[in-house]
Design a protein that fits this description.
Elements lengths: L2 E2 H13 L28 E9 L9 E10 L5 E12 L2 E15 L5 E15 L4 E2 L14 E15 L2 E8 L11 H4 L7 E8 L1 E4 L2 E12 L5 E10 L3 E11 L6 E14 L2 E10 L10 E10 L13
Parallel strand pairs: 1-7
Antiparallel strand pairs: 2-3, 2-17, 3-4, 4-5, 5-6, 6-8, 8-9, 9-10, 10-12, 11-12, 12-13, 13-14, 14-15, 15-16, 16-17
Amino acid sequence: MKITITAILMGLLSLGAIAQQDAGFSMYFFNPVYINPGYAGSREVFSGTAVHRSQWSGMTGSPTTQSVSVHSAIPESNVGLGLQLYNDVAGPLKNTGLNLTYAYHLPVSEQGILSFGISGMLNNLRIDWDDIDIDDENDPSFKGNASSSWVGDASAGLYFYKPRFYLGLSANHLLQSKWGFTDAEKADRARFYRQYYLTSGIVLPMGENFDFRPSVLLKFVEGGPFVSELNASFIFYRKLFIGAGFRTGKRVNMPGSDNMLIGVLEFAISPSLRIGYSYDYYLDRTGDYNSGTHEFMLGWDISRFKTKMSSPRFF
């Protein structure tokens, strides 16, 4: 279904208002390598995660995102390597990318490890002009604009972890690469903006087969809102995760905040396979126009690639 220029502009402005250059996953704590390259290899097995996210369900042109990532610690070394493929669609704007990640894990205490990670990124950004109704085909605003652009970028992160605790600090889009769709006068605004993440979580034993895991994510983007997210999960028999979260972000140049409740469910089908689902419920006026956000996750760990760094992992 085609949508008007006004709808496109409003949608892109809304995305900018909540700092969504990159998709934000509600189950980020099951796949931290998406926001912190230092995580690569920390699970000590050949590990992978596939995620599908449908945001603002029920709205035409609403964002959808798919991500597949794999990473592993290299045997007989302190090195972790990772690969990530992702596809993000928001109306006529599409972003397909590839990340290659290198991490070095340095033991700093009896159980604590500090990891340094870097990622090289290659993004293909596209605009599907056929999805836009242009009243005047000779409108100079659309002349000379490319429909596809290849953009390189980089990210870096620090990740400290123990069997029941982690703390991460990372920065994405370090190069703040320009998209290349518009003329030189507008090109400085059409670019990726640097993003900063602070994440942390801990697992507290509550009984023989019962644990409690609170976690926090803080995110800052230049020109965007400061986003904070608090989550808490109960873990039963190290197989079933049932949790909830609250996310808030102050709007930029607009009154109010974007607040939502998050429900999370994960189940380990076997030691090597797990599935997850999350649902975001919007507490502000945005929720009047959609039926929430759905996210599905499939994760796996292949133990035959296990390394000498083995230890039980909650993250």
